[in-house]
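Now for one protein, fold included:
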Amino acid sequence: MPSAPPCPGRGRSWSSAHWYINATAVTAMLRPRTIHDFYGFPQELFDVEYPAPGLPELSDQVAEVAKPMWVGCDVDSWGIDHGTWSVLVHAFPDASIPVVQLSINADKGIDYHLELGQKLASLRREGVLVVGSGNIVHNLGAVDFSRPDSAYDWATRFDVRAREILLDRPIDVTGLDADRDYRLAVPTPDHFLPLLYFAGLAADSGEQVSSLVEGHAAGSISMASYTIGIDCPSVGDSDDQPAAALPTSIPTDETNL
């Protein structure tokens, strides 16, 4: 889940892999609903509500900065899906900051998403937190529950290659589709494309990309996360302790991966 922290600001603009449609749109309702777009998970996840307000004027700004690309304003069909609220419920549990969500246009190529990410950089400079939520490696067909926190060789190679590009020259991330492991790592583009928005933001800002989280789950899912323009302390630099191990009492397929 790449993210780009802003100056203190007034809202969050979120690009989620789970709103994958044939258009580019942005939520523009005052009270976006919480969407439970999954199945087979514990009831506790279906009970989660994230009542963050919307911000229609930010939706209008997204449409404006994207020109001449067309961005529609969705006033009633979508909301905040679990690609967004599953992160926000931990990062901002009081749900007090407005959230605007951007769809991923399935009809557009990689260059389009990178360019749109670059256009969104002006919002970040105004204090909007821009986040891309997905997975660099996301192959559910190859999930191996006996590997709760490790990866196949091809998943590791692709993750490492993506990291090298992001840390050195983010604009080159569009070349990852030519990587030998791309088809295994990215069998469908929905979870991969949010990375292009982050890379566009990074390329526009010229700021250093930092690795926030590394690791894998179930063999074929990367948990890598990156951020722009901040120093991420290591465990040795603070009093924080490493994250807890995955729970052994809950199967991987009953978590919110």
Summary: The first helix runs from residue 43 to 46. The CA atoms of residues 177 and 245 lie 32 Å apart.
